[in-house]
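Thanks for the sequence, V.! I ran Right handed beta helix region right away. Repeating your input here for the record:
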Amino acid sequence: MSSSPFRPSVAAITPSRRSPRRRWHLVLLAIVALAGVLFGTSLIFTGSGQRTSERGAPAQQAVPPTPITAWPGPDNTGVPPGTALRRSGSLALRIDGQVITNLDIYGCVSVHARNVTIRKSRINCASTAYSVRTYGSVVNLVLEDVEINGLGRNAAAVCCGNYTLRRVDIHNVIDGPRMGSRSTIVDSWVHDLVRVDRSHNDTLQTTGGSDITIRHNRLEPYNPSTEDPFNACLMIGSTTTPVRNLLFAGNYCNGGNWSIGVRADLVASNIVIRENAFGRNYRYGVIARPDQAGILWDRATNVWFDNGEPVVVSG
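Predicted structure:
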């Protein structure tokens, strides 16, 4: 009689001097071997019962294909280690081309001039408004290697446009930067938001503007201690004006009711969301309204952080 792969051999079921316990052990091993054939997995059980791979190495749990250290964090944002800082109060910057370096600012910063740079400095601002605010005809404000500590009171870290943040560490704020026209945030880390009564905390937010770039940042609204996802990594709406030419690329994002919040009032064109890695600590999903007019969600390159597989979304 021909043997079926699903039927133990005659020798395995013929009474012999083997004990029933031994016979069941052999049957179990046969089932495991068959499962390996069916599912493409070859496992070996050592005498101690430890599961190993085909080559004898202990089987490992899956690890993220790209480690979290590939994105900005405590080692490469904010004031570089060893930098000596001088204490300062609040600043009102009114000179074009002014460069501020190596300050420990206890207060807030208002910028009224063009081409101002703040570098290698810490801003500790307890205002219920903004740590850094641009006014009037300001263009090309640059914050580089800066830490912003909102001291648990700051409504938003930076407002409202015509700025670039590079390697900036933002924390202890209700909201991260508010992004208007000509806003760029790269290689920065926004984390440890502060929940207050009726707050809808976002690591980044825009209510309108054009030429906005958000590239290679680590955005973490989720609080693991309280399991609070907060509101969004990026909130996009048109409360003030339409949103045009926004790029969200190469970022790590974990948390939010929706990790990417898209308001129903959004009037948009050329919002491109691609090459991002998403965690799973959200409340509802990764993106609200991905098929809304003006949004280009790249289904192939927006992936899960933990396994690198594309995030499947529905409109």
